[in-house]
Amino acid sequence: MQYISTRGQTAPMQFSDVLLMGLAPDGGLMLPQTLPQIDAATLDKWRTLSYTELAYEIMSLFATDIPSDDLRKIINNTYTVEAFGTTDIIPVTKLTDTLSLLELSNGPTLAFKDVAMRFLGNAFEYVLKRKGERLTIIGATSGDTGSAAEYALRGKENIEVFMMSPHGKMSAFQRAQMYSLDDANIHNIAVEGMFDDCQDIVKALQEDADFKAKYSLGTVNSINWGRILAQIVYYFKGYFAATENNEQKVSFCVPSGNFGNICAGHIAREMGLPIDRLIVATNENDVLNEFFNTGKYTPRTSSETYVTSSPSMDISKASNFERFVYHLLGNDGEKVAQLFNDVRSGKGFDLSDKLNDVQQKFGFVAGKSTHQDRLTTIKAIYEQTNRLIDPHTADGVKVALEVAKAGEKIIVAETALPAKFEETMHEAVGAIELPRPAHTVGLEDKPQFVTVVANDAQAVAKLIETHVSPR
Ligand SMILES: *Cc1c(COP(=O)(O)O)cnc(C)c1O
């Protein structure tokens, strides 16, 4: 399989090369040239596979330049009972007649990003070793990406990690999770700004071609293709768990920010998985909700971005969205380049003439949830089902219930566990004790390791120069 860029100006590449890339050289995002089509007979065969077997079947269609045995090893080391706490890896739990939860958050950092990041950590180490290269990972996080990346990459050979987070904008638990790591290859950087400022710094450093080459910069942000690939697997798993045969359809509702998670759902649907609708749930930062309801994409500035009680969805522009737009525009790289150059210069774009395709052909629906909605939903679900859901998952449940059609089965992605967001949970259901996995007990009391820097790419570049020797 060959990969191309959404902006059409990058020569086709193999999986191993794409895996180590951030943005494509032409500023776009990498995608498979064509998507494998999964027929009914194959779905039948896959239905009864274990998670690791299913992951192998799907990933081997995309990672065609990694020998089978090596890929199997990477997958088996990634999706272990030790890391995810269940043999199912990603269990599906029925909540009500309409709703089920896709439990994506049982990994080391209690959020869905572990699922993809652990794969990336192992795949990176493998590919780097094979190529005899090293990598300096730079990343931006509003909480969950950073911790998942750091736990997945700590102690890995030939990898150095510089993770930027918005100073003072994460929960105490999230801070403790990241900043308590003392591995020599992990560097926490708190930037005096918003998440999007962190993301802009990552982009600025990536776009400095000399600096990028000199320090072998790479990224594990949600634009990384390897992450999308790992996420495709659990849409298949969720579908099989919730259905008895391929005649049945289900919808997925995904609490969304950078559009990474649901982008994998979109690709699974394009591969032929019988997904009815893909429901995008946003919080008050509703740039995606607006697009999927109007066809108008209007990125916000960082001063227009709200700090909310579902912080991992506090984004003003959705970095993976370009992948969907590429498919929506019939793989027209030139048009995509034009639209996203406008985005970069602060403008938005209007695809309202394509809204029918967005909603009918691609099955997208969207809704929005507010702080009050989260509280109400957490409380209602707890009272009805005795199950505690985290604020992000609550955004998903709220929107799913709002848009549900009669008889529709909706699987809501559980993107984090409640223990990460104690303050909001207590506001919703009172000061009850939140279940906490044993390995996180006492985390907040550990010493923390973090450097605070100004909102300035050069300040971050200096830190990298201090710790990494140039090529
Ligand atoms: C990252 C994250 C999201 C948003 O996922 P995207 O892939 O950016 O759309 C939602 N919920 C939680 C808990 C997250 O960590």
From TrEMBL:
PROSITE patterns listed in its UniProt record: DEHYDRATASE_SER_THR
GO molecular function term, any single one: pyridoxal phosphate binding
Top-tier EC class: lyase
Keyword Ubl conjugation in annotation: no
GO biological process, any: threonine biosynthetic process
Threonine synthase N-terminal domain span: 2-79
Positions bearing N6-(pyridoxal phosphate)lysine: K113
Amino-acid biosynthesis listed as a keyword: yes
Top-level taxon in the UniProt lineage: Bacteria
Pathway: Amino-acid biosynthesis; L-threonine biosynthesis; L-threonine from L-aspartate: step 5/5
Family: Belongs to the threonine synthase family.
Name this polypeptide is given: Threonine synthase
Organism: Moraxella pluranimalium
